[in-house]
């Protein structure tokens, strides 16, 4: 998935020009009520809006499958066309570079009966300076972390003699995949600005770094996190057809029939199927957007791009809420006479903060008050806190429901090509990512939208399931099923 850099938003407004913050407690919930009402109206996602989004998602998918560049959705070929069968045996590694951390994992697979015998993993934080350094420095750091982890192998983990350790490499940045084990980095995202990688094969970059470290391992599969999640979930359940990541950014992938992918020009896989990474974060058709979304987009590193991602994913929900609260503070004196400097600071209110505020069940909304004070530097009374929670709910409801409509769009596209094979039987959508995992209201809104769109009967066949950390094991499984041995 691709998301833009946080740093680029630090353009406006200039905090220096604002009045010094002073804490004036005065409830102004009444005067901001019209702003809330207007926001709720603009963010509303009644059934016709959801239906339009689902239909447009399906149509954009088709256009992206027809020809490269045919749609907002890139519909990237993953080169994953066989799934782990359960028969995989042996020791495999996974390396996941997705955001601020990278994770290394090893798994000992025991085949049909024993399945996963043992797993171990480690997480390493990437030092800030490496996100702005050279490609060699970053990949050396990763290879070094991998080497240290590999040294600790023992116990239940065994490599048969005469074999190299094989790695499934999960790399969640936009890659033009060239085969199952190679792909060119199109551009860094998510705050990374590493020089010398764009335009290069990231597997070659890793191989060269491993050589410099004297580490004799081999990348057998390069995948993104959605593909890893799909493979990991499907190892346990044959009905998994779609995987969705809702974390810092968002993306979705699914199992497609090769005969309905015109841009393949007749290249068929032996299985007749392949996984397509939709790159749905770039979707933009018919979304209910507000002035707050447009302003946030205009201030971003990638204006006009990744609009669906900016409306539904974790990096942005808190920032949209902050922009609404700022307007309420400026136009309606929500927090009294002055606007705090903190509240004027882009990205200071994070999605985990608005999530925590929505979990507050206390009579006086004490946690909401504390977060507003600590994070935004404002005091609030109960009526103001209620107003703030309403704003959070409005933005999160829109995000969750639109994500649900997107999922239905994918299922609808699959059903159109394969009558009754999606809605006529059990179909599983594997979900992962910090936003989905941690935000109960978001999850509920997402599922409600799916049920509204499909109706009670049909939605019984669609199982939306959290697949925790499936992507790491999934990548290792793909290394196993694409083993060089
Ligand atoms: P990534 O997408 O970078 O691989 P994750 O899947 O772990 O990482 O997702 C991290 C994102 O999840 C954060 O950026 C944040 O938006 C969201 N998130 C994390 N914790 C919470 C929380 N408690 N409540 C709501 N959202 C959360
Ligand atoms: Mg991730």
TrEMBL record:
Q: EC number(s) per UniProt?
A: 2.7.1.-
Choose one Gene Ontology CC annotation of this protein and give it.
mitochondrion
What SUPFAM superfamilies does its record include? Actin-like ATPase domain
Pfam families per UniProt: Hexokinase_1, Hexokinase_2
Report any one BP term from Gene Ontology: glucose 6-phosphate metabolic process
Task: State the InterPro entries in the record.
Answer: ATPase_NBD, Hexokinase, Hexokinase_BS, Hexokinase_C, Hexokinase_N
Keyword Membrane in the entry? The reply is yes
Entry keyword annotation includes Kinase: yes
Q: From the UniProt record, which GO molecular function terms apply?
A: ATP binding; D-glucose binding; fructokinase activity; glucokinase activity
Q: Give every Hexokinase C-terminal domain span.
A: 242-480
Q: Which family does it belong to?
A: Belongs to the hexokinase family.
What's the name of the protein?
Phosphotransferase
Organism listed in the record: Vitis vinifera
């Amino acid at each position: 998935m691709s998301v833009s850099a946080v740093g680029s938003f630090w353009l406006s407004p200039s905090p220096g020009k604002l009045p010094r913050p002073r804490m004036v407690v005065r409830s102004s919930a009444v005067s901001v009520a019209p702003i809330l009402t207007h926001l709720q109206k603009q963010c509303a996602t009644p059934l016709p809006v959801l239906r339009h989004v689902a239909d447009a998602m399906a149509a954009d998918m088709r256009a992206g499958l027809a020809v490269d560049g045919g749609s907002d959705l890139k519909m990237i070929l993953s080169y994953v066309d066989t799934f782990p069968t359960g028969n995989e045996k042996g020791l495999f590694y996974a390396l996941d570079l997705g955001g601020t951390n990278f994770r290394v994992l090893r798994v000992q697979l025991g085949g049909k009966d024993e399945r996963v015998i043992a797993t171990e993993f480690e997480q390493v934080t990437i030092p800030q300076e490496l996100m702005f350094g050279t490609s060699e420095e970053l990949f050396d750091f990763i290879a070094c972390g991998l080497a240290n982890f590999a040294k600790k192998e023992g116990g239940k983990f065994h490599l048969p003699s005469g074999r190299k350790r094989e790695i499934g490499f999960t790399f969640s940045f936009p890659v033009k995949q060239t085969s199952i084990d190679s792909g060119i980095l199109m551009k860094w995202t998510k705050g990374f600005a590493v020089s010398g990688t764009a335009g290069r094969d990231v597997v070659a970059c890793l191989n060269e770094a491993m050589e410099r470290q004297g580490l004799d391992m081999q990348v057998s599969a390069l995948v993104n996190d959605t593909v890893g999640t799909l493979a990991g979930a499907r190892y346990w359940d044959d009905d998994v057809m779609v995987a969705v990541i809702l974390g810092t950014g968002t993306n979705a992938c699914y199992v497609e029939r090769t005969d309905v992918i015109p841009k393949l020009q007749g290249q068929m896989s032996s299985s007749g199927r392949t996984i397509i990474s939709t790159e749905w974060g770039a979707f933009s058709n018919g979304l209910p957007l507000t002035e707050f979304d447009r302003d946030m987009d205009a201030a971003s590193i990638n204006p006009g791009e990744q609009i669906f991602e900016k409306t539904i994913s974790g990096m942005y929900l808190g920032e949209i809420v902050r922009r609404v609260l700022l307007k309420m503070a400026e136009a309606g004196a929500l927090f009294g006479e002055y606007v705090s400097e903190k509240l004027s600071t882009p990205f200071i209110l994070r999605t985990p903060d608005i999530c925590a505020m929505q979990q507050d069940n206390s009579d006086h909304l004490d946690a909401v008050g504390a977060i507003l004070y600590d994070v935004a530097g404002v005091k609030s009374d109960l009526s103001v806190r209620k107003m703030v929670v309403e704003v959070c709910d409005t933005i999160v409801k829109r995000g969750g429901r639109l994500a649900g409509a997107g999922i239905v769009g994918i299922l609808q596209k699959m059903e159109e090509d394969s009558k009754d094979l999606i809605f006529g039987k059990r179909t599983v959508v594997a979900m992962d990512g910090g936003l989905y995992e941690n935000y109960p209201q978001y999850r509920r809104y997402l599922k409600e939208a799916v049920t509204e769109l499909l109706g009670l009967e049909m939605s019984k066949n669609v199982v939306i399931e959290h697949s925790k950390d499936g992507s790491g094991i999934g990548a290792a499984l793909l290394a196993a099923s694409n083993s060089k041995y």
